[in-house]
Amino acid sequence: MTVWPTATLVSLTRAPQYGAIASGAKAPIGPRFVRQTDIASGRIDWSSVPYCDLDPSDFEKYALHRGDLLISRLGNGVGNAAIVREPHNAVFAGYLVRFQADPLKADPGYLGYALQSQDWRDHVASYRSGAAQPTLNAKQMGAFELPLPSLPEQRAIAATLVSLDDKIESNRRLISLVPELIRSRVEEHIAQGASDVSVSSLAKFVNGGAYTKGATGSGRMVVRIAELNSGPGASTVYNELDVPDDKTAHAGDILMSWSGSLGIYRWARDEAIINQHIFKVIPTGYPAWLVFDRIDAVIDVFRGYAADKATTMGHIKRGDLDTTTVQLPREEALRELDAALEPLWDRLLIAEQEVLRLEALRDAMLPELLSGRIRVPEAQEVET
């Protein structure tokens, strides 16, 4: 195994900089304003980035450039990092710190991936332990020590991981576009004539069970609302229980959380056990893509019901499924839509599953490449 020398983040970058103090706005009144809430999984989610009222004279000071590294310094997201791949005429907020790679010492893409590593997470945890409000300052960030292969190797490592992330991002775009297309086509046909039906008539809504009790730690994942929102994590429960099929999540199944954080989801992971507070939504006579879209169309209505009933945790009742109605296109229009949209719905599942596989591959390769246990052949050829 190759053993790389090590270096601190601050030794590989220019002087770190804290972001601008400004107010975000929906209207395009100024530059885009990247906040710590816009950073997830090593990337900036530009769909959520607002504009801001920054004084034009301060723009150059805070303007983002390709290759900039942004790290969150406060709150539950402390330590979240992202590399700027597309600047978008943007600046960054005060709860972020910017590091810029010294081009003679480090590749920004390589540093960006080092800031997604377990070593980085451990470094952040060493400062946030026991803190009521976790914080991380620029000096603490800069003290992070990371492996330092040669520049050609750094670039090759980054290129290998970027190729996976590009495929992931392509699939994510498809995942976001298909539901939008389905909604657009459904509403187009509803405008030409529609019928009102109750949500409860669309499907059978089967509640999960209390399956976290006596968990064995092995077997199938027990799907709670946390797993629906964020996927499996350190607190995920596994159990070897045998449960009925209507309380089992298979790839492609529709799930709906009805308590706490209400939402509608399509399960794409391995077979799992459905916990309480989650409905398995089993379509009854309607295509799955339509059932998902129609529930999604009124999910904010259900969230309103839950907010009105909130004590410790808001929820809806089965009666709300009966009294809440949705519009459906006419029967002949539905047949036409199903022929066009069912293949897209199936393709959507393929994209969702491919994202999971590619993310798992990238996450497995990241520590191996950073440690030198796996070498990139192209970089080895450059060095020899």
TrEMBL record:
Q: What class of enzyme is it?
A: hydrolase
Keywords associated with the record: DNA-binding, Endonuclease, Hydrolase, Nuclease, Restriction system
Q: Which residues form a coiled coil?
A: none
Q: Which residues cross the membrane?
A: none
Give the enzyme's EC designation.
Answer: 3.1.21.-
Q: Which GO terms describe its molecular function?
A: endonuclease activity; hydrolase activity
Fetch the Gene3D superfamilies from UniProt: DNA methylase specificity domains
The family line of this record is:
Belongs to the type-I restriction system S methylase family.
Q: What is this protein called?
A: Restriction endonuclease subunit S
* Native organism: Agromyces soli
